[in-house]
Structures
1.
Amino acid sequence: MPIPHSYSFARYLSAKKSVDDRALNQHVWQSLVAALPHATPEQPLQILEVGAGLGTMVERLVASAMLTHAAYTAIDLEPTLIAEARHRLPQWATAQGLQVQQDSQAHAWPGGHEIHMQRPGQDIRVATEAIDLLRFVAREQGQRTWDLLIAQALLDLVHVPTTLPALLSLLRPGGLLYCPITFDGGTVFQPEIDLEFDMAIEACYHQTMDRRLVAGKPSGDSRTGRHLFTHLRAAGAEVLAAGSSDWVVFAGPNGYAADEAYFLHFIIHTMHTALAGHPHLDTERFTAWIAQRHAQVEQGTLVYIAHQLDLLGRVSAPLGETRE
Ligand SMILES: C[S@@+](CC[C@H](N)C(=O)[O-])C[C@H]1O[C@@H](n2cnc3c(N)ncnc32)[C@H](O)[C@@H]1O
């Protein structure tokens, strides 16, 4: 595909879905399936997803049939993404053969919008809300708890030492935390253009993550995945399963899969924006490097690998308080 003239984060997240599908660690996924408590119509599984984007994880979980009866709360900071999720999820569910009802005035829920999906053996209610996760925690703490908390491709964007304990406080005793696609310090492009310059760009790019400030506070870590082992223990959770979930994107005999050429252009554009004017990178050389990477996508020769980890954790449960 030609180089896009403009970029849409929603289209990027949609294009990312097939890349994530291949990347998700199956051992961690199966450990999650095994650890989930049994759900019933009277006691549906309570799931909270933070930084849910378009709701592609909702789609994945519903499609996998591992969810039978669930009350799913999906929040994201970005109102445009939540609006897109409210548009996209019913369409997706209908195409999958589920019966769908929407309640845009679900008064019991501050987010005010609920999607109800049903088919034999599955009854899922998805409540969505555009809200910052820490504001959500402050509002819900002590009011409600969840069985499972999902944070996909999110924890590398926030200050984990403060965010993780806040999020875990919303889990019931023995509740689970699933954090797949957590970036862990590897950005690889093939073929090499100039190994030394390629490596300098990778190092500078990771440094932008390490130095990221949101509202004046540190919010990012290019090695979040490996650091999660320590953060989880410090926050009182044990690690049940972990494994790599690297993105590997390349063109097969029919070119890049699905919308993955767009995904690659978006990644290159993100790096261009993050590193434009960087004092350690010669501007002309860096501009030429970016143009060459875009051209490689057009030619179908670019291979992109990002190293990531999936972790499954559990908060401790006083004896006799686990839900089976
Ligand atoms: C890389 S995207 C991943 C989206 C989705 N989990 C996925 O994997 O497709 C990170 C998401 O986290 C959201 N986000 C970032 N900071 C947040 C915060 N403080 N509260 C809630 N959402 C946040 C962003 O708006 C974005 O949609």
Note: The mean pLDDT is 95.
2.
Amino acid sequence: MSKRVLDACCGGKMFYFDKDNPDVEFCDIREVDNLEYYPGRFLTVKPNTVSDFTNLPFEDGSFKVVVFDPPHLIHAGDKSWSRLKYGRLEEDWEDTLRDGFNECMRVLDDDGLMIFKWSEIQIPLRDILKIFQAEPLLGEKRGRNKNTHWLIFMKAARAQEVQNEKP
Ligand SMILES: C[S@@+](CC[C@H](N)C(=O)[O-])C[C@H]1O[C@@H](n2cnc3c(N)ncnc32)[C@H](O)[C@@H]1O
């Protein structure tokens, strides 16, 4: 893979300045064409690859940066605008998020970084970090911006190696 960045669940690519950036492999489990998810608001989901973040079709260590912004709602009506726009977690959500995190780490280069976004609307960040069993390098700890946290993780094995190298 010559692209350096993977977005494992890109949705509407809201935070990209260039939604067709050739250096980003955009993935999502669905394709959506101009859906009116809320009166007057439209969503297009146009991934390069339709794939499941719990089973990514890439080799180990393929990307320098992995972006992981999974669904964050467990309670959302089938036809609610939030489910249409962001997706919804199902009953096995803990396994799904753990498997997704581990899969994103697998395809991350040893010296790469993972950018994780979590909106703490229904599930607190501390519960997610317990599921991941990983400590972020840095990030917005208090989620002041509408309960949204942006965190950066390093690959665990490499981070441990560096710790061990300390005099
Ligand atoms: C919070 S939204 C991402 C929003 C996106 N970052 C944006 O800027 O619009 C979560 C996305 O994860 C996708 N998704 C849900 N389950 C998935 C899975 N197992 N594998 C890949 N994508 C998944 C949903 O289709 C949805 O587009």
Note: The chain has four helices and nine strands.
